[in-house]
Each structure stands twice: as structure tokens, then as C-alpha cells.
Design brief:
This protein is α+β, with helices and mostly antiparallel strands and 709 residues long. The chain is 19% helix and 32% strand. It contains 13 helices and 38 strands. The radius of gyration is 27 Å and the shape is globular.
């Protein structure tokens, strides 16, 4: 049909209005393109956004600030909702609170928070005669992080360790977010803090003489923990004890529960080696428990003259053995807990008369107690079908009760002492949720999605009762799926703001974690990494098919390696998701893994593959989010990161957004929100600042499914 002529005056008015509208509508920034050629396996590859890696370049900072300004403008209308959510979330939190005190030696240690203060305060009180907690004993403040953080925009506490004579505190702090910690001591009588003892410290411990400290430092460029040092606090000069030369390994340091040995571990993804030194012989030499053997993973504890060794030798999911300290080789092993194909043996805790082991079975945490004298096992049971349980920290070797934390997606975090002789659990504290939280109004359950290769993937689900199963409910799907790091079905106060607005929350326990054992990790790494992404997609399809939600009501979230997951699945199935929050995402896989000078790269070869090998290169390139962006429609995307992130460099998400802006064919929002001030991989360090960020992200996700109040 022919169109009618458009009057000149009307045309002028229309053009004027259109130009005015364009002027009012925020326009996304455009990152310039600069040719950058790399040759990978004989192929020349151009990456025109490579220049965004130049952290000190004012043009880079200007571009990132422009992205922040664009996000600010595009979300200006969300401010009232975000502020309301922040007040709602904060209103459920008991701001002045106290952790459950835990005894170590002559003192009970605890932390507390005060309303209006960003950080916790670390304290202790002297135990009463007989060892009981004495509320009337005077409080000693070990460390007030609020005081340390004065004048700083970020302060992270790396760790705390009190000397055996209870007089000196050893601690570390990071003030930038780059996870670069400085080590200090504090005299607990005078309050005097030392000058910095060392930089780039990743772990530390005391020797038994209250004079020598041991610590591990990281390489300044790669951030690999590679050097173990000894420091005599009276002499003042650190001495290098051990250097891990193999770039696949990182070094850690600790002390056995009975305080008799220092333990240094060199670990790669598939091989672990442990060295030990008597805590009373700080000038002695560390000795290897077992020589390094490719594929053998083991760690240990000490109890009554025996090493208890958790080993995967002949035991995919680990088994527990004991051996004399003088002869810890396999020929002298005595089996304590045999291997089971359907149970993953995790950490274990030795006591004078008992052992407590933490296990995973069918995606759930559990504990078992071993009575050493009676040689009997006792299971620790929990009331709900979907839950999370963690060891709560019991420093006292002679204790007859072990502390645990229990929670579920409807039960707030709860601290118990479990009597190891009877199994009786005594509730010491449950996190108080202000505002009248009633768990009976919510439901949690376990679902199983079938992946395309027939594997059953566990899903942990929580929702407010009354949600309709007709596909109309919005649904929030979260997953991680890497490094064998299993996700647990924990409680979250901020999540209540989703549930109360009718949103279903689902945690997908996809392959790449360890929820179903070590094989679950193996089947989601290296040349099987694609299973992680297809498990997530198949879980989402299952939830849509079963009418828990629909495609236009489904929002997803993942961070770090979970951000890689977000990038991969939105490339593979952009039609399946309404909105995506990708936090500190590892999306520029090939550029990062091909650059051995970057932090943490070489050590990751055993998780992702070595791209210098053509087969691994081709496989990784097939899923790398940045390399697989295409000209097509994408869901709404919110990408968050920090300029000082040391785990996933800021330029990965920045480059991803810049490239996607040139390709996406839809009108859905694509937003980059980057913390230019000091912040880390986990975002802001202060609890109020972190909650404000959470409120903003929640407001954005809810708004994408039409919920704005």
C-alpha cells in the first residue's frame, strides 16, 4: 500500500521531538578499537579491545568512568526501589551482635558488631576456673577493624593468630582489594602494633616458643604463594625456608590441632605434598611426610603420636588412614575409614578421644564421629531434607564436644555444640532475623534435573508457600560449577526480599563442583568442561518444562568462574534467560590463559587445560565467552567488577562489554558497573557498603521481570 505524503511542518516537529528524545536517552559509551595481533598456533588473531588492559592509561580510566556514568543514568529510576530494598534487608539484620565465644587455652574468643560500624571487632575474655565462659570477665579487644580502617575505603583482614603464651597477636590486612596482605604483630598488653613484618603474605602461624613466626609470601607478578619464611621476632630478619619452584603449585601453612606440628602444604589441582616441623623446634628443617607423587592428594593431622592422613591413593573419594610419625609411608598405614564410591570424605578434626569427619553424600553435608577407644562410629543427623552443615571451629584438642553450624534455605544459621559421646546437639545461637520472620511460610525441597547425557543434577529450591506452578512465577537460578567447590543450600537474609515478592530461588549443583564426589569435579573440568554449561542449561530447561517458571521470567547469576558460566550459557542459549547478573566474570579465557605472566594463570592449567597444547586450546576456545560473542539478540545483562580485582582482572568484563556492544542486535540493557575505588574480588569490604551493592543488584534483577516495589 502506498504511503501518504508527510507534511513538511509535521516532519520538522517530528524530527525535533526525536532529536530531543535522543538527547534525553543515555547513550552507551563506545570503546575505541586498536589493532592488536597475536599468533596462536599459527593463526593471527586480532583483539581490538586489548588496550583496555592498560590500567594506568587515562583513556582506560575515562572509558570505565563513562560506563559507570551510563549505568548510573540507565538505572536512575531504580534508586528508590534499591534504597527501599537496602532498608528492608538492613531491617532484618541485628546490627549489634555477638558471635558464640569459643575457647582456646585460657581465653574465650569471639567477634562482635556494633550498629553503624562497617566492620567487626575481635575480642576475648579470660575463662573462669574450670574453663567455663565468664561473662563478668573483662573484655579485651584484640583488633578493632573499624579503627584500622579509619581513612581507608577498603580494609580486609587476612587472618588472626595468638601466640601460645596468649600475649601477642599476629595478623594481616589488605587496604586495596588486590588481596595483597601485610603482616603485623600487636602486643596485647600494651596495644603496640609493630612495623610491617612482611608484604604479600598469604598464610602464617606461630611456633611454640612465642618468638618465631612462619609465613608464606606470594610472587609479586603471578600472585602464586611460593615462598615459606621463618622470622625470629627478636632478631628481625626473615629467613627463606622453602621455595616452591613448580609453577603449578601453591604453598599453604598451618598448625595441627594439638599444636605440636607446623604443616606446610604444596598443592596443585591434582597433586598434594605435605611437610612438617615440630612446633617446639622452630630452627629445625621441615620434612616431607610422603614424597610428591603425580595424582596423589593427601593432607594430614596429628593425634597422640600418629599422623592421620586423608588420601586418595586407591580411593577416588578419599579414605582415612593413620601411621606413626616416624614411618608415615603406605607400608605402615592402618585404615581408619575406608573408601566409599558414593561418599566424599572431606575435612576431619582430631580430638584427644575422638575424630570427627565431614562428608558429602548425594549433594548433602554430613558428619560422623569416631570414638577412638571404642572404635565405633556415630552419625550426626539433621532434621531437614535439604540443608547445609559445616564444622564450626573447635580449637581445644581436649574438647568432648565439637562445634557445628547448621542451616537450610529456610532455617537461619545455627550454632550447635555436639556431644561426641552421645551425639546430643545443643543449640547455642541461631541468627536472629528481625521483622517477624516465620520459616513456616517458606518451603525448601530437592529436585533432580536430567542432563542431556542422562546424568541427574541436584537442584536446591526455596520459595514462599503459595507460589503457583503454572509458569508465571519469576525464578532466580544460581550456580558456580568449578574447582571442585561445591555449593551448599545455605540461608540468606537478603534472599528473603526475592522470596517475599514471589520469586523462586534455585541453586543448581552442576558438574565442576564436588557435591556428588570427586568424579563430579572431574566431569566438569579440562576436556569435560562443557558439561558444566550444559548441566546449567538443562536445569533451566527442566524448570521451565516443569512450570516452575518461563523463559521470560527466568533470571540467572554467577560470579568469577560462575561468571564464565554466565557468559558461556548466554552465548549458547540467549533465548532461555530474561536477565543475567555476571559478577567479576572470567570471560576472556583465551587471552588470560595464553599469558603466563598474569596472576594465577599457570596454576590453572590443570583445571582448564594448557592452551599451549592445540587440543586444549581448541576446546577452551569453543566455550570462551569473549571469543564466542556473535551478532544476535542477548538477554538483559548486568556485569559487575572491581578495578583492583586480583583474581579476575577488570579488563575481562570491560572488554566483554565493549565487544558485545558492537554485536548485540537487541534493545535489552547491557550495563557495566565497576568499583573504581579500592575493592576486591568480593566487592566492598564494609558490611553496609556490601549490602547496598546487593540491594542494587537485587533491584535490577527484580525489575527485569517487572517487579519494582
Amino acid at each position: 500500500m502506498a504511503t501518504l505524503p508527510f507534511p513538511a511542518a509535521a516532519m520538522a516537529a517530528f524530527m525535533s521531538a526525536a532529536m530531543g528524545l535522543a538527547a534525553q536517552t543515555p547513550q552507551p559509551p563506545t570503546a575505541k578499537q586498536v589493532a592488536h595481533l597475536e599468533t596462536w598456533h599459527g593463526e593471527k588473531v586480532n583483539d581490538p579491545w586489548f588496550w583496555l588492559r592498560e590500567k594506568a592509561n587515562p583513556e582506560v580510566v575515562s572509558y570505565l568512568n563513562a560506563e559507570n556514568a551510563y549505568t548510573e543514568a540507565m538505572t536512575a529510576g531504580l534508586k528508590p526501589f534499591s534504597e527501599a530494598l537496602y532498608k528492608e534487608m538492613l531491617g532484618r539484620i541485628k546490627q549489634t551482635d555477638l558471635s558464640v565465644p569459643v575457647r582456646r587455652g585460657a581465653y574465650y574468643y569471639y567477634s562482635r558488631t556494633e550498629e553503624g560500624k562497617q566492620y567487626g571487632i575481635q575480642c576475648r575474655r579470660k575463662a573462669a576456673k574450670g574453663g567455663a565462659y565468664d561473662e563478668k570477665a573483662s573484655e579485651e579487644i584484640l583488633l578493632d577493624q573499624n579503627e584500622l580502617a579509619k581513612g581507608l575505603k577498603f580494609l580486609s583482614l587476612g587472618g588472626l593468630s595468638v601466640s601460645d603464651d596468649d600475649r601477642t597477636l599476629l595478623y594481616s590486612t589488605d587496604a586495596t582489594g588486590f588481596r595483597q596482605y601485610t603482616l603485623f604483630t600487636k602486643d596485647l598488653a600494651s596495644g603496640k602494633i609493630s612495623a610491617p613484618l612482611a608484604q604479600r603474605v598469604t598464610s602464617f602461624t606461630w611456633a611454640a616458643d612465642n618468638r618465631h613466626v612462619f609465613f608464606v609470601t606470594e610472587d609479586a607478578v603471578t600472585k602464586r604463594s611460593n615462598q615459606l619464611w621463618r622470622l625470629d621476632l627478636k632478631e628481625g630478619k626473615p629467613e627463606l625456608v622453602f621455595e616452591e619452584k613448580d609453577e603449578l603449585y601453591g604453598v599453604g601453612l598451618g598448625r595441627t590441632k594439638d599444636r605440636k606440628y607446623l604443616v606446610s602444604e604444596s598443592q596443585s589441582t591434582d597433586t598434594w605434598e605435605t611437610r612438617y616441623l615440630p612446633a617446639g623446634d622452630p630452627k629445625g628443617a621441615f620434612k616431607a611426610v610422603l614424597p610428591r607423587e603425580k595424582g596423589h592428594k593427601y593432607d594430614l593431622e596429628h593425634r597422640e603420636g600418629l599422623f592421620y592422613i586423608r588420601t586418595n591413593k586407591g580411593a577416588k573419594n578419599f579414605r582415612l588412614v593413620s601411621a606413626p610419625v616416624a614411618t608415615p609411608d603406605p607400608a605402615h598405614w592402618t585404615e581408619v575409614l575406608p573408601h566409599r564410591s558414593d561418599v566424599l570424605l572431606g575435612s576431619f578434626d582430631p580430638f584427644k578421644d575422638y575424630l570427627v569427619v565431614a562428608e558429602k553424600s548425594k549433594g548433602l553435608d554430613r558428619f560422623r564421629i569416631f570414638d577412638v577407644k571404642a572404635k565405633t562410629w556415630r552419625d550426626v543427623t539433621f532434621p531437614e531434607s535439604v540443608y547445609a552443615a559445616f564444622q564450626g571451629g573447635t580449637p581445644e584438642y581436649t574438647s568432648t564436644a565439637f562445634r557445628l553450624n547448621y542451616q537450610s534455605m529456610v532455617t537461619p544459621s545455627s550454632v550447635y555444640d555436639c556431644d561426641m559421646a552421645t551425639g546430643k546437639q545443643t543449640l547455642l545461637k541461631q541468627t536472629e532475623v528481625l521483622g517477624g520472620y516465620d520459616k513456616s511460610q517458606y518451603a525448601t525441597e530437592r529436585l533432580w534435573a536430567t542432563s542431556r547425557d542422562g546424568v541427574k543434577v541436584p537442584l536446591s529450591v526455596v520459595y514462599k508457600k503459595g507460589v503457583k506452578r503454572d509458569g508465571s512465577a519469576p525464578l532466580f537460578l544460581y550456580a558456580y560449577g568449578s574447582y571442585g567447590a561445591g555449593m551448599s543450600a545455605t540461608f540468606s537474609i537478603p534472599r528473603l526480599s526475592l522470596l517475599d515478592r514471589g520469586m523462586v530461588y534455585v541453586l543448581a549443583h552442576i558438574r565442576g563442583g564436588n557435591e556428588m564426589g570427586e568424579a563430579w569435579h572431574d566431569d566438569g573440568m579440562l576436556m569435560k568442561k562443557m558439561n558444566t554449561f550444559t548441566d546449567f542449561i538443562d536445569s533451566a530447561d527442566f524448570l521451565v518444562k516443569e512450570k516452575w517458571t518461563s523463559k521470560d521470567r527466568l533470571v540467572i547469576e554467577g560470579g568469577s568462574a560462575g561468571g564464565l558460566l554466565m557468559g558461556a550459557v548466554t552465548n549458547l542459549r540467549p533465548d532461555l534467560f530474561k536477565a543475567v547478573h555476571s559478577a567479576v566474570p572470567f570471560v576472556d579465557v583465551m587471552n588470560t590463559m595464553m599469558d603466563a605472566s598474569l596472576p594465577l594463570t599457570v596454576g590453572e592449567y590443570l583445571e582448564w587445560g594448557n592452551p599451549n597444547e592445540k587440543a586444549a586450546f581448541d576446546y577452551m576456545r569453543a566455550y570462551s565467552p569473549y571469543d564466542n560473542l556473535q551478532k544476535k539478540a542477548y538477554p538483559a545483562l548486568l556485569i559487575t567488577t572491581s578495578f583492583n580485582d586480583s583474581q579476575v582482572m577488570y579488563w575481562e568484563p570491560a572488554k566483554y562489554v565493549a565487544k558485545l556492544r558492537t554485536l548485540k542486535t537487541d534493545s535489552n540493557p547491557l550495563l557495566l558497573k565497576i568499583k573504581m575505588e579500592p575493592a576486591g574480588h568480593g566487592g566492598a569490604s564494609g558490611r553496609y557498603d556490601a549490602l547496598k551493592d546487593k540491594a542494587f543488584e537485587t533491584a535490577w534483577m527484580l525489575s527485569q521481570v517487572g517487579i519494582t516495589k
